[in-house]
Amino acid sequence: MRHWIPPLPLAAGIVFQAVAWILALAYAASPSSGIALAWVHAVALGWLTLVALSVLLHVVPAFTDLPWRGERIARAAVAAVLVGASALVVSFALNATAALAAAAVLLVAAVLAYVSVALITLAQPAPDRTSAAIARALSVTLLMLAATALLGGALAGAMAAAGTGSLAAGAARAFAVAPSHALLGIGAWLTVLITGVSAQTFRPMLGARSRSTRIHVLSGGALVLGCVLGAAGAPFSPALLRAGVTLAALGAFAYAADALDIARRATAPHPPVRAFVVASVTWLVVAAACATAAAWGAPLAATAVVAALAGWVGQMVNAHMHHLGVRVLTTLIRGDEDETRPWEVLDARLTWTTFALAQLAVLGITAGIAFEQPPAIAAGALAGLAAIPAMLANALGARHALRGRTVSLL
User: Rounded to the nearest 5°, which phi and psi values hold at 336?
Assistant: First the structure.
């Protein structure tokens, strides 16, 4: 049976989240560039991109009314990303440069395969202007993913070419373009994807939507253009880097203001999801401010990366997991036509526990990186690990409720 969103990558995303918190504990005990890179890619690739690609299998046809072309290839590519991300994280953590290159090749091939069939799908004639606009926006975002993968593959190759000694030597050699990779991956891919998709998903999740589509167009355009300009300027032009990051930050602030207004007007009876959204957007503001300061010379680049990945993107994914993830579970058990709402089967106490622990985790690791305090990083990592059993217990409880529920046909 082919599910509308494959459940295995969603489950793997939770595993990668646990791996990331374990890596954070290891970094707190003994900081190293290999552990830091393993953490970044466990979060960005394993937790976030893997889940995003899985959800897009549903989003692409649902939002554009365009049937997939090469859906089998796309689904196989998601599985390959899972394997490649696992190998990449292990390679970074163990300083295994030869395995790093092989993992990077697999990831680049998988991402390019997925993006290729997605672009072919989105190039079909759309049924209306709105669908056509969404298709164009998704195409641009996926092209940013492809550019991120290609640049990441080049960076991995440079690190592997440094020899068997240390990842640090290769990383230093490729350092000039590493900020470009981060800007494209975190900004032009993950951030732009979430700002675009949330324009559609906020309505079922929160019961409200934006008052103006123009805000999404302007903020999305500023984010894409700003990140591309910043990525182009990072290796060569500090002025262009600053201009690009500042423009992207303005786009992030505009989106944040609109998202907070939507959350304020929310009517869906699921307050924890609203709280996840508000927390996520708050971390977006923090990340954008830190990135802007870093572009002007402040030592906050690493803080911006952590706040963006674990805070902004991670908490928005958590919000969607507590809605779309539950809907996937519901359809697995009761079929695609079932209309059970997530808040009907989730335990609010466990959801709030997950929320509180997740925010303590992000706060601890972000503050720990900003102020170079390993105990804060360790405390954040422990909170993050503690949030996962609460999330899994909630999912198991929802599964039990769905299996035991009876439906009246009268």
Answer: -65, -20
Per-residue HEC secondary structure of the chain comes to CCCCCCHHHHHHHHHHHHHHHHHHHHHHHCCCHHHHHHHHHHHHHHHHHHHHHHHHHHHHHHHHCCCCCCHHHHHHHHHHHHHHHHHHHHHHHHCCHHHHHHHHHHHHHHHHHHHHHHHHHHCCCCCCHHHHHHHHHHHHHHHHHHHHHHHHHHHHHHHHHCCCCCHHHHHHHCHHHHHHHHHHHHHHHHHHHHHHHHHHHHHHHHCCCCCCHHHHHHHHHHHHHHHHHHHHHCCCCHHHHHHHHHHHHHHHHHHHHHHHHHHHCCCCCCHHHHHHHHHHHHHHHHHHHHHHHHHCCCCCHHHHHHHHHHHHHHHHHHHHHHHHHHHHHHHHHHCCCCCCCHHHHCCHHHHHHHHHHHHHHHHHHHHHHHHCCHHHHHHHHHHHHHHHHHHHHHHHHHHHHHHHCCCCCC
Top-confidence range, 18-27, 158-167, 326-335: 18-27
Alpha-carbon distance of 138 to 124, in angstroms, equals 13
Average pLDDT over residues 270-280: 95
Q: For residue range 187-217, list pLDDT tens digits in order.
A: 999 999 999 989 888 998 999 999 888 888 8
Q: Count Cβ atoms within 10 A of the Cβ of residue 188 and give its class: 0-12 exposed, 13-18 middle, 19 or more buried.
A: buried
Q: What's the pLDDT score for residue 406?
A: 39
pLDDT tens digit sequence for 218-265: 999 999 999 999 999 999 999 999 999 999 999 999 999 999 999 999
pLDDT digits (tens, 9 = 90+) for 7-59: 788 789 989 999 999 999 999 999 999 999 999 999 999 999 998 999 899 88
